[in-house]
Amino acid sequence: MKKELSILIPVFNYDCTALVDGLSRQSAALQAEGVRVEIIVAEDGSTNEAALHANAALTANPLCRYLPRRENVGRAAIRNYLAQQANMEWLLFLDCDMQLPDDRFLLNYLNSEGDEVIDGGFAVCPCPEQMGRNLRYSYEWSEMSHHGVAQRQANPYRSFRTTNFMIRRDIILAHPFDERFRHYGYEDVLFGKELHRHGIAISHIDNAMMLSDLETNDVFVSKTEEALRTLRRFRDDLRGYSQLLTVVDGIHIAPVRWLIRLWHRLFGWLERRNLCGRHPSLRIFKLYKLGYYLTLTKNDNQS
After folding, report:
1. Is position 286 within any domain?
2. In this structure, which of 3, 125, 208, 278 has its CB flanked by the most CB atoms within 10 Å?
């Protein structure tokens, strides 16, 4: 069993106290068995007063170190900062808006066999009433077949996500997240690519965190658009690790790209209305993403 663990949670405009409470209970049990555990929560320039007020109560938790930061530095830099602040050999990074699956979550990580990077994965809490209504839920549920251990292990680097993973501290200090990624999306994809490039093994295990807090359709569409702008900017770094880029690069006929752009310029607003509405379509979502990405380019030589 691994004997040291820093649990690191970057937070932006979210009340993470319920997650920390659950982690604290599991950590206390582990400490009784001789495992050293700490929890560090870092605010990444949060502006939501209600969330800030709630998270400030974490200062009373003896297992938790709460680090409020006024400047928003982005998803990559805040994780590097947390790694620098950690004291233990093993670092467990968790997204703040996830839910613990059971009371053995931390123990499963400590008993895992990986010795460099371990990805526990994530799953969607069953919520049938959201199917066909909430775009994030419908999308994640449709992708669940790709999130199983066997599927992730078949492509260990392309399947890596920062939602829920453990890594040795010396590794992330030597190979930090790329801090050019200040906006939403793809910092984890490039990190997985860099781990591959340096021959650092990723072990995938069945220890998923649960997604239960779903953003509204308009928020999810806006985040998707931001991620596509990130993809566009770092396309040369991400080729081979983005399915959308693979599709775009496979469209070799210039008039086809022109027609997709024209379609998006004419009907993209209607597609977006559907996606932000009460019954969003996953087929329209895929078409919208392709059209949105291609309209970010001025000519085919740039895409």
Report:
1. yes
2. 208
Rounded distance, CA 108 to CA 165, Å? 12
User: What is the b/e burial string over 163-178, where b = at least 16 CB atoms within 10 angstroms of the residue's CB?
Assistant: bbbbbbbebbeebbbb
Residue-wise pLDDT for 236-283, tens only, equals 999 999 999 999 999 989 999 999 999 999 999 999 999 999 999 999
Q: How far apart are CA 188 and CA 161, in angstroms?
A: 6
Whether 153 and 232 map to the same domain: the answer is no
Amino acid at 219: V
The torsion of the CA quartet 41, 46, 51, 53, rounded to 10 degrees, works out to: 80
Cα–Cα nearest to 31, from 65, 53, 56, 62: 62
The structure tokens listed for 287 are: 């078409």
Residue 246 structural domain: 217-297
Place of tokens 């399947």: 159
Distance CA 56, CA 44 (A): 14
